[in-house]
Each structure stands twice: as C-alpha cells, then as structure tokens.
Amino acid sequence: MLERKETTGRWKTVYYVNNEGHIVRKKCRDCLETKDLTEFYKSKSGGLGGRRSKCSSCDSAEYRDYYRTNSKSLIKKRMENRSKNLSRDYETQVRYTSRNRNKINKRRSMYPANVNRAAREFGLPANLTVEDKEFLLDLFGGCALTGETENIHLDHVIPLTTGVGGTVTWNIIPLKAGLNISKGNKNIFEWFDDNKERFNLSDEKFERTLNFLAKEKGTTVADYKKFVYEAFKNKEE
C-alpha cells in the first residue's frame, strides 16, 4: 500500500512512498503525470527521491526541441572544438590519413548516408540526417550504454534483417564498436540481460536509452519492447 505525500514550499510535488518509507512514484512537473521513480533520470544535484523533477520523456523532448532550435550553433561549436585538436596543414592531414586508415574506415559506420543505404537495401525507411546523428551523440555523450566517445558505431536496435524498423531515430543508437559487434543481429533486450555483467553495463543507461527510443516512436517502453519481440517473431516466421 502506497502513502500519498506532498512537498511543501513554492514547488509542491505529489509523491508516494512504500511501507519502508522509500519514494517509489512521483508527479512529473511538466506533463503532471504520476510515474514510477525509474521513469525519472537521476539527478546529480539531489532532487526528490534522487531524481529529476521532470520525467525522462519530458526531459528528452525538451532537449530535442532545444537541439533542433540551436542545431547549427551546436554543430558549429562541436566542429570548432575538433579543429583545435587537428592541424589544418595539408601535409599533416595526409600523414594522419596514411597512418590511420583503419580508424578512418571505422568512422564510416557513423555516416548517416551509409546506414541509410543499408536500410534501403532491405526496402526499409531511411531518413537519418547528419543533424540526427549529432543530436544522438550530444544526447548520449557518445555510446548510449557506456558514455565512451571513441570508436562509435550507429547501431540498428531492431536489426535490418528482421525486415522491420529501418534507419530512423527510434531505431538508431550510438554504440561503441565492441558492443555493436557483440549485439549484432540479436534482440537488444535479451542481449543486454546476457551481457550486462560481461561488459559492466548500466541498467540506468539502458533504461534511459529505452525511454528515448519509445518517446521517438511515440509509444511506451512496454509497447516498444513488445514491438521489438514481434519483429523477431516476424523474422522467425
């Protein structure tokens, strides 16, 4: 049995505690829906229940709106930061290319044109843009499940071989190469359960990733999971 409570002060928030006195549900300050505490991102500065005041869906929507509005300046800033660490001298660029061909080839997995082309070969939607890729990198800070920034691939959450999904924002996440290779054409839910200890993966980051994907598809996490399993069932049939 949960007990309903409410904070005092200017910003009043309704929340619910269990028999042990732990907060398990609270109301989002933005959409005003009462949700499980797990549907709120953790807050570094504290917050009620150690979570942010807005639910993960509202947080992601707000960030996406901000990114869409300021995409040009954000991309420009990103490119300026990169340029500070790279010589603009032509000969230096030639030497870098000759010495790092393997690294450069790996980067091709991050080109929207390449992942779009792969989806088209399966007759699936393919509309990922450069802005979408930059948005994903900024949102997750690199790999969606680790936060690492080196050797990142764009992974199709639902593999193209299922004949479902495609290269669209609700089916693409940035993953470091090792994770992308390990996941391959597997069901992401089953793969995560089997490998989270092996790769020391975070349940919180996985939860955040699923919240984002579900929001992009316009559905709930539960329905998104059901959709993924149905895609694999379709592949088997």
Short description:
The protein is an alpha+beta fold and 237 residues long. The chain is 47% helix and 11% strand.
Can you give a write-up of this model?
- With 237 residues, the chain is α+β, with helices and mostly antiparallel strands.
- The protein folds into two domains: 3-54, no CATH class; 58-236, no CATH class.
- 47% of the residues lie in helices and 11% in strands.
- It contains nine helices and six strands.
- The protein has helices at residues 56-83, 90-99, 101-107, 112-121, 130-140, 177-183, 188-195, 203-217, 221-236; strands spanning 3-6, 14-17, 23-27, 34-36, 152-156, 172-176.
- It has a four-stranded antiparallel beta sheet, with no helix packed on it.
- A hairpin with a 5-residue loop joins strand 2 (14-17) and strand 3 (23-27).
- Helix 1 packs across helix 5 and helix 1 packs across helix 8 (203-217).
- It is globular and about 60 Å long.
- Calculate the terminal CA-CA distance, rounded to whole Å: 44 Å
**Domain module count:** 2
Order of helices and strands: EEEEHHHHHEEHHHH
Average pLDDT figure: 84
Helix content: 40-55%
Number of strands: 6
* Strand residue percentage: 5-15%
**Strands across the major sheet, in which order?**
1-2-3-4
Major pleated sheet: 4 strands, antiparallel
Shape: globular
Could you name the ranges where pLDDT drops below 50 across 5 or more consecutive residues? 104-108
> Helix/strand-derived class?
alpha+beta
Radius of gyration from CA coordinates: 20 Å
Q: Please report the number of helical segments.
A: 9
